[in-house]
Specification:
397 residues; alpha/beta; 2 domains; single chain; 5-stranded mixed sheet; Peroxisomal Thiolase, Chain A, domain 1; 15 strands; globular; 20% strand
Length: 397
């Protein structure tokens, strides 16, 4: 089977607008919560991108894009720069873009609803191009002159994990030499934050995955982008890649639209391991979906225990304690955290862990990062609608 490698990553997040800053926040367990700026006085805590320095060097005008596309272009630029991929030596039609996005231009739609329903004004003529869910991939392709396969996957919180997995398949099939893959989301509009709050699953304090005191998720925004290419292509460019994208698994629960299902989670993880030609015992670390809600964390625990049967689970952590839940971008940010953990020999902790929950009785790396040589790791994404995705990454010799 064709070996697929990671040659660069890029991050825009509330806890760092580059990969190194992002990683530093993860390993120190430093979140960056604030009251939602669009809802002053609400007390609703979110994880918002407040740093605007990344806007200075965008290759396309930020004003033409929704916030989610701005994040995607900035993260893709970082990832491409880190990988050394340049057009000219590489044919633009042999490079592709697949990004995950849960709901498209939510901020743009909110702005225009205000114009329409409150102010009785005409809508901006670029409302549709800004709001369409595919706009982030389109803007990345235009910003960097990429003319190969280009589209968006939309599967709620599994969107960007699906995007990365599909990008792996494109490379294996020989449909591209390089893939720009990941995801983006900008859900911190009045309507979207209020809609999530109506579900009664948002914490007013902090995200505490797997902890006894957890009381919900923290909504977040941002983007994560990974450059994937075949190992032979990377080495032909003089690279010595450190991490392989080894396996991709997926499943549908065909059950409840919001309640998680351990069987569906387990199927996705088993498919990912089979794709990587690995066994659960080969995993040294798992980056869990770990949203900080009662139902998700307990169900994911059940699925993980079934995966390992009578064996002890390896260390498991949820980086959402730091980043919050970035919905369609979450899988990409967590895949990057997993990749960097393999590269650096450190596993990021589950932040804000107050006390153990007997129903989540495993080593969740509470509060403090840990040195660990990681030969292989898994990153999980389990979405509303029963849409599950798992990615396996492996260290290269």
């Amino acid at each position: 089977m064709t070996t697929i490698v990671v040659s660069g990553v890029g991050v825009i997040s509330s806890v760092g607008c580059d990969a190194n800053s992002f990683w530093q926040s993860l390993v120190t367990g430093s979140d960056n919560l604030s009251e939602a700026s669009v809802l002053p006085g609400s007390g609703i805590q979110v994880s918002e991108v407040l740093d605007r320095a990344f806007l200075e060097n965008l290759p396309v005008p930020a004003s033409a894009m929704d916030r989610n596309a701005v994040f995607a272009v900035a993260a893709a630029g970082q990832a491409l720069a880190a990988s050394g991929v340049k057009l000219g030596p590489l044919k633009p039609d042999r490079i592709g873009v697949i990004l995950g996005n849960g709901a498209g231009g939510q901020c743009s739609m909110d702005d225009q609803y205000v114009r329409l329903y409150r102010e009785n004004k005409r809508l901006h003529p670029m409302t549709v191009p800004k709001a369409m869910v595919s706009s982030s991939a389109s803007w990345v392709s235009m910003a960097f002159g990429i003319t190969g396969p280009c589209f968006v996957t939309s599967s709620a919180c599994a969107s960007s994990s699906h995007a990365i997995g599909i990008a792996m398949q494109f490379l294996r099939a020989g449909l591209a030499d390089v893939m720009v893959a990941g995801g983006t989301e900008a859900p911190l509009s009045v309507g979207t934050v209020t809609a999530w709050d109506a579900m009664k699953i948002m914490s007013r304090t902090a995200c505490r995955p797997f902890a006894a005191g957890r009381d919900g998720l923290i909504l977040a925004e941002g983007a994560g982008v990974i450059i994937l290419e075949t190992e032979s292509h990377a080495r032909s460019r003089g690279l010595r890649p450190a991490v392989e994208a080894a396996g991709f698994g997926f499943s549908a629960d065909a059950g409840n639209i919001v309640s998680p299902d351990a069987d569906g989670m387990l199927r996705a993880m088993n498919i990912a391991l089979a794709d990587a030609k690995m066994d659960a015992g080969d995993l040294a670390y798992i980056n869990a979906h770990g949203t900080g809600t009662r139902a998700n964390d307990r169900t994911e625990t059940v699925a993980l225990k079934r995966l390992f049967a009578d064996r002890r689970l390896p260390p498991v952590s949820s980086t959402k304690g730091v980043t919050g839940h970035a919905l369609g971008a979450a899988g990409a940010l967590e895949a990057i955290a997993t990749i960097m953990a393999i590269e650096r020999g450190i596993v990021p902790p589950t932040a804000n862990f107050d006390a153990a929950d007997p129903d989540c009785d495993f080593d969740c790396i509470p509060n403090e990062a840990r040195s660990l040589q990681i030969s292989a790791a898994m990153s999980n994404s389990f979405a509303f609608g029963g849409l599950n995705a798992a990615l396996v990454f492996r260290a290269l010799a």
